[in-house]
Write a structure and sequence with these properties.
259 residues; mainly beta; Jelly Rolls; four-stranded mixed sheet; 20 strands; globular
Length: 259
Amino acid sequence: MNFNPGFDIRPTTQPMGFKYGDGVFGPTVENRTLDSIRKSLRDPQCTGPDPVYSIAMDVGKKEHFHQLEKLHLLYGAVTYAAGRLGNEPVRSQGHIHKVSPLSGWSTPEVYEIWSGKAIIYMQETAEDQPGRCFSVIGNPGDVIIVPPYWAHATISADAEQPLTFGAWCDREYGFEYDGVRIHKGLAWFPLLKENGSIEWIKNELYKESNLVIKEPAIYSQLNIRSGKSIYAQFEENPEKFLFVPHPALVEKVWQGFIP
C-alpha cells in the first residue's frame, strides 16, 4: 500500500479481501457482488468486476478490542477491484447512515485513503432537492469526513488500480437506501471517459443542484492531524473520534459543514 494505516492489515486481490498480521483482529470479509449494487448504477445491465468490493467491518489491534467496544467505535476497511462498471467507475451504493439508537443521530464517517485514488461523493439529502453536492478527491493519506445525515458514495477514480481505504464508524452502523433508490441513484453520476478522467452527469430525477469538486478540507476544528493515520491518532487519544458515535458533541461543526 502507499500509506501505513497504523496496524498490520494488507489488502489482497486473489481472492479479494484482507490479511491480518500478528496482533490484529478482523472478520471474514463480506463481498459485494455486481448484482447486489445494480439498482444504484446508471446502467443496471452493465458488466464489470465481480465481486466489486470487499468489506471488513471491525478491525484493529487486539489490545484495543474491548476499548473500541466501550467507546462505541468501529474501524472498517474496504478494498475495491480495479476496472469499471460499464462506463461508470467502481463504486459503492449511495446511502445514508441510519439513526443510531445510542445518539439519536445519523452518524458521521471519517475516511482515510490507503491506496489508489478515491472520490467521496456526498449530498445533503436524498430528497428531490439534494442540497449542496460535493465530489471530494482523496489520495493516499488523505482524510475525508461525511457529516451526519448526508447521502454519500465512495468511488474509485482510477480504473487501472484497486482502491483501499479505512474509516471510523459508529459501532451500531446501518444504512438507509430508500431515498437513493427512489431516485435511481444519487444526484450526480460519475462516468469514466476514454482517457480515464471522470465526467459528472446530472440525475434528472432530482431538482437542480450544483456540484463542487474539491480537495479534502483540513479538519482542524476536530483536531485531526494530517500525515498521521487516524488509527494512530486514536491510539494517542482514544477520545479524539468520540464525535463519530456521539455527533452532538460537536454539533456546531456540522452547521454549514464543508467536507
